[in-house]
Each structure stands twice: as structure tokens, then as C-alpha cells.
Amino acid sequence: MKTIQQAINFVLVLLVFSQVISSLGIDLDEEMYETRDVSTAFRLLDFDTYYGSDSGLDERSGSLHLILNDEDLDDLEKDSPSTKVIIVTIHKYLTNSSLEIFAKEDSKVEGVVVLHGTDQEGSVDTAPDHFSPFSKIPQQFSGLHTSDETEWEWNPNSNLVFYTKWNFPIVYLSLEDESSEILKHAQENKEQDKTKYGISITGQMYGQYDSKVCLRRKYCDPIGGKSVYSFLGGQYNDSKPTTVVHCSIDSISMFPNYSPGYDSDSSSIAVLLAVFDALTDTAKTGAGMDWASTDRQIMFGFWEGEKWGHLGSKRFLKEVEEFKCTDYSSGKKSCETPYRYSLQFTEIDLNNIDESIELTQIGLPSTDLNAYHLYAHVERNDKEDESIELMQYIDDVSKNSSSESIQVTTISQASTSTPGIPPSSTESFIQQNSDIVSIVLSDFNEHFTNPYYGSVFDNGDLKNITQLVSVANLIARTIYAKALGITNLTTIPLELVVDESLLETLIDCLVTDNHCEFYENYFDSEYGEEYVTNYPGVYSEDTGRLQSIFIRNFLQTKTFPASFGSCESDSDCKEDEDGDDIYADCIKKKCYKRAAYYHQAYSQDIEYNTDTSKYDIDSKASNVWTESRWANLSCKSFLFADTTKDTLLFALGLAFIIIYYIIYFLFRKFSIKKFFNVKSLKQN
Ligand SMILES: *[C@@H]1O[C@H](CO)[C@@H](O)[C@H](O)[C@H]1NC(C)=O
Ligand SMILES: *[C@@H]1O[C@H](CO)[C@@H](O)[C@H](O)[C@H]1NC(C)=O
Ligand SMILES: *[C@@H]1O[C@H](CO)[C@@H](O)[C@H](O)[C@H]1NC(C)=O
Ligand SMILES: *[C@@H]1O[C@H](CO)[C@@H](O)[C@H](O)[C@H]1NC(C)=O
Ligand SMILES: *[C@@H]1O[C@H](CO)[C@@H](O)[C@H](O)[C@H]1NC(C)=O
Ligand SMILES: *[C@@H]1O[C@H](CO)[C@@H](O)[C@H](O)[C@H]1NC(C)=O
């Protein structure tokens, strides 16, 4: 009897109490806000295992715990937090030794937030002396020197931290964004109340095992994109010797969405595009210039996904040699299965590609010689002597071009103590055809001089545009002389120099501004993310990365600047004005005659099977990189119930209960039973 009455009254008290709480505005959800531009360290898988962060199926949350200096780290190591924490730190502490402290079994670390950039008070995440999380021997297992007994550490600055398996999510927040709040909150937590502000992270990125297993079970997708290639003059001639001038177009980073890749390899892209611009400008090459009638043919190659086992160059070379179309479209213009929008590549004769000049990491001024200097690397094989001759030819072009009005880079042969050419697409060409004469030009000699290879710090802070112009001038003049077979190198036109302001614009677009005005000439400006990423992403048949689209459209409109007709899509550009069948593409709602081509860039060891909707894996496969699927990526910060408010609430609640009991006992005296008529309640 009495207990029921007390229970009912207690419920009533609770109801009133919760009303009081909500009227005070203590609502956790209202204090939450989502941070935009959150980017995560991806979970990536190769053929044998997986790497990177794990954001698990469930949300991970904890109070903010700041690690900005060594003292903070020591404190964390000595004195593990008693409740769950999310570490807020900077790149300097993305090292194995600090990660080991975070990952200790009893450490209560639920995740790591890496801050980057500059807020009102300046840069918090200043560049460490060096930061390179990837391999010391990039592309070792897809390159030429896999079985070398002496492994040459091209990238000695690497801390290899990418290869660690983390059991918590790691996200990247740009300080320009709301995350400066996070820094403030973390500081407040540190100075006052350790658990006032918290953060929760979801990502659902937790792929395990390896690429074989995940492709079969469909929880990952292959890394890949689109390469682009073109022939100077826009026409392929299968009976001409061909020089391929090329670079890779992708970059890597711990946080793939933030991979500006200035030195590796946006600087090479910008230089080659500026070269292409100069060579297609008859004011620079001479009015009668006709690239179709030159002795030598020049092919430009921009390979995608090279950092992930030479995806672009390997698939291109493989398909040029042995592509089988099982279902042609009408007129055999394209292939339906496997889908290829153009079959131009099947016309290429690989035996005619007898020379290769590649640019890789040409963006930093040489430190040991003068600033306008590059190193030429040659492979130590049967073609070594001829490759050195090619280098000498380029050196002669350089020496004969030197004048007050033209700044031209000088070159010299790289050290012979290295095993041969550095990691580059040229490795794929030599693997395909060991008779190719090749040189790789770079700003480093024996080891990478870029301290930030494969990181967000490779951002062009050290760029020097006049140095890039000098490289581009050398390449433009070399190509001109090569194509025309010029022996008297003083006859290369003095006018043949690249446009410095174009080069500057290209660097700005490719490295820092995805929405630069210049891009609007080539595609709709809304396309693409806010941030610059040169990570290929996962392969998709339908779309390409902004950079691939830009390069294709740039090459095509430079080659054939005259547009015709208006269009919404490529299919509107199948006929010219006279109604004859042609190859053309739709660029900015106008048709342009086709002169540049995309090529699928994903592992040559896998093939999409439309019947099973899965990738078939070659039995001899050894090189397949995949990205674990993810969902609902978010990073929300929130205010844990404030302790002063907590105390106040507790006191209020206590007072309320005391008052309630006083009233209750008073009422009891005046026969509360009658008043509430509990009996009738019970009878009902
Ligand atoms: C960091 O950890 C990874 C994975 O455990 C390891 O491969 C690498 O050698 C470590 N790096 C250093 C500098 O010890
Ligand atoms: C291809 O090149 C050869 C050799 O330079 C030349 O004789 C021929 O006319 C060219 N073909 C076309 C279609 O331009
Ligand atoms: C670029 O490098 C040259 C040669 O070292 C130097 O004279 C020039 O001042 C540099 N330019 C910039 C903008 O740093
Ligand atoms: C110019 O090139 C020729 C080869 O064509 C070479 O013999 C000569 O040494 C070069 N001139 C200079 C100043 O180096
Ligand atoms: C090279 O060309 C220049 C200018 O046309 C000329 O003066 C010079 O004599 C030529 N040199 C040789 C070796 O033919
Ligand atoms: C993402 O979150 C929504 C609700 O917020 C949920 O319905 C959905 O299942 C989540 N996606 C995945 C793949 O878990």
C-alpha cells in the first residue's frame, strides 16, 4: 500500500526533476557540432596485409587530450588517463614511438586527431625537419630492383609510420576550419578540467586481411583512376620512332585527402603542360611547324596511380601489347566489354617507343650545385651507353641555349653508386622493353632531397618558379631538337621558351587551389573537392580525378583549339559539320577534335567481371592495393556535462527531494490517503 504510493510519488518527483534539467538547457545534443573537412588516415590493403587506422563499427569517443610537446607525451606515458581520451596532436607526434604510447593496452586512447595549418595565433603544426611516412624504397616490389641484394634507400627520411596497424581512428583537421575550437577546447581540458570537452569519431573503416580477401568479400575497392596520353600534333603515326616524355600525376600522404604533392609530382605535371603549350604555339616554334612531318614522334604520358605499384604505366603498356576486346561497339570505334571509350592505344607499336625522358621530383632547387640544376639517372643495362648519349644531347641543348634572355637548367649524370634509375614510371617501360633508351631527371642525386615525400608538407612552400621555368625551357627545346633531328643546336629558335605566368598558374591550381579560375576554361568550376588531393582514390569506370580531366582537356584544346558545334556530352560530338563520323569530345559544351586520351589506371593483375560484379584476380598477381570501404565519416565535438552545472543540478535535486519529503510528511499528518484516494487507485 504504502510502497505503491511512495513509488508513484517518486516517479512524479523524477518527472519534475527532468523538467527542471531540460529547462536549464542541459542538452548534450545541442552542444554537439560536426566538424567539416574531416579527413581520415585510410585503412589500405595490399596483397599480403593491411595498414593504417581502424575506425571500427561503432563511434569512438573520449575527452580531448592535448599532446603538443615532449612534456605532454611524457606525462601521458607516466600517467595514463583514467577515462577514455582522444589525443589531439600534430604531425611531429605521428611517429612509431608516440603511437606506441597511444596504443598501450591500458592507455584508454580511443582515437587521434592531427591538427594542421594555421589559425589566428599562427601555425601550430609547423613542419618537422622531415616527415615522410611511406617506404624508404618506394615501389620496391613493382620496380626494377626488387631482388637487389643491396637495397638502396632512396627515401632515407621515411619514418615508415604508414605501415603501422592502428587500433583506433586517426583523423586530420585543418586549423583554418572549426577545428581551431578543438585546439582551444583541448587546451582548456589540459589547463582546467580534464574531461570538459569531448569528441566522437565515426568512420566505419576497418578492413582486415588483405586485398584478395576483401575484393572477394567486397569490403574494399581497388585504388585507381585515369592516366592521360597524347601525341604532339594530335596524330599517331605507327611508322615513326617515338620519344615518350612523361611523369606521374599522383601523390601520397598519410591523409590521402591532403596530398598536394608539389615536388612529387605536381611540379612535373606543370612543367610538362607548360612545355606542351610552348610546343603547340607556332609563334614560338615557327609558322610552318607541322608535327606530323617531323622525323621523330613525341608522346606525352601522364600516369595515374604510380605510387601504388605503377598502376597507370603498367596497365597502359600491358594493354598496348595485348588488349582483347570481346564485344566491340558498332564501327569498332570503342569496346563495350571490357569498356574502353577509345581503342587508339591498340594502334600503338611499342617497338617504336625507343626513347624515354621522365621527370620525377624536379621541384626543389638543387642544394649542392647551382639552383638551376637537375640530375640525370640512367639504368645500368645494355642501353646504359646510349642513355648517357641521350643525356649528353640534352646537356648540349642546355649549353647551346644558354643566353641572357633564356634561363635553362643544366644537367649532369647522377651518382653511379645507386643501383640505377630511381622509383619512376620508366621502370615499367624498361620492364616491358629493355631496349628502350631512357633517362630520369630529378632534383636529387643519390637520395630524395625532399624531406616531405608523401606528406602534406610537400606543399610548394619551397617552390621557385624561375627554377621550374628553366627546367621547362630545357625540356621544350630538347623535344623540338629531338623531333626535328637537329644537329646544329644553335638553330633552336630563341623564341622557344615557356610562358612563366602560365607555369605559375598551373602550380597554383595543381598544388593549392582546386577551384582556381584557370580551371574554368577546362571544366565546370564546381567540380572537385575544396582541398587539393592527388591521391587517385578508388577506381571508377565513369569518373576521373579533376587533375586527369584537366590534363586531358588542356592537351586536347591546345592541340586543336578550334571547336565546333555545341554539346551536352561526348555523344553529341560524333559527327563534324559535314555529318562525317569523327572522334571528338565535349569540353565546356563545345566539341573538340580528339587529341588526348584517358587510359584506365588500376592494377593490371585484376579485371572487373560484369557477370559476378567482382574483380577476378590473376593467379600470378602480386601487386593489388585497395582501400577499405567506409561510411558515415564524421567527427563531432561536444561538451561533457559541465561540472559546475553538475554540482548546481545535484544541489537543486537534493533540495527538491528534501522539500518533497517535508511536504510529504506534512500531508501525511493531514491524512494524505484521503486526499489522493490511493485505495480507489488500487481497486482500479
Ligand atoms: C614503425 O612501425 C612499422 C610497423 O610496425 C615498422 O615497419 C617500421 O619499421 C617502424 N619504423 C621505425 C622507424 O622503426
Ligand atoms: C608517317 O611517318 C612516315 C615516316 O616519317 C611518313 O612517310 C608518313 O607519311 C607518315 N604518315 C602519315 C599519315 O603522316
Ligand atoms: C629562385 O632561385 C634563384 C637562384 O637560386 C634565386 O636567385 C631567386 O631569388 C629564387 N627566387 C625565389 C622567388 O626564391
Ligand atoms: C652545342 O652543341 C654541340 C652539339 O650540337 C656541341 O658540340 C657543343 O659543345 C655545344 N656548345 C656548347 C657551347 O656547349
Ligand atoms: C650552326 O648554325 C649557326 C646559325 O645558323 C651557324 O652560324 C653555324 O655556323 C652553324 N654551325 C655549324 C657547325 O654548322
Ligand atoms: C550511416 O548512418 C545512418 C544513420 O545515421 C545509418 O542508417 C546507416 O546504416 C549508416 N551507414 C552504415 C554503412 O552503417
UniProtKB/TrEMBL annotation:
<keyword id="KW-0812">Transmembrane</keyword>
<dbReference type="InterPro" id="IPR041084">
    <property type="entry name" value="Ncstrn_small"/>
</dbReference>
<protein>
    <recommendedName>
        <fullName>Nicastrin</fullName>
    </recommendedName>
</protein>
<keyword id="KW-0472">Membrane</keyword>
<dbReference type="Pfam" id="PF18266">
    <property type="entry name" value="Ncstrn_small"/>
</dbReference>
<feature type="transmembrane region" description="Helical">
    <location>
        <begin position="648"/>
        <end position="667"/>
    </location>
</feature>
<feature type="domain" description="Nicastrin small lobe">
    <location>
        <begin position="42"/>
        <end position="195"/>
    </location>
</feature>
<comment type="similarity">
    <text>Belongs to the nicastrin family.</text>
</comment>
<dbReference type="InterPro" id="IPR008710">
    <property type="entry name" value="Nicastrin"/>
</dbReference>
<dbReference type="Pfam" id="PF05450">
    <property type="entry name" value="Nicastrin"/>
</dbReference>
<keyword id="KW-0732">Signal</keyword>
<keyword id="KW-1133">Transmembrane helix</keyword>
<keyword id="KW-0914">Notch signaling pathway</keyword>
<feature type="signal peptide">
    <location>
        <begin position="1"/>
        <end position="23"/>
    </location>
</feature>
<keyword id="KW-0325">Glycoprotein</keyword>
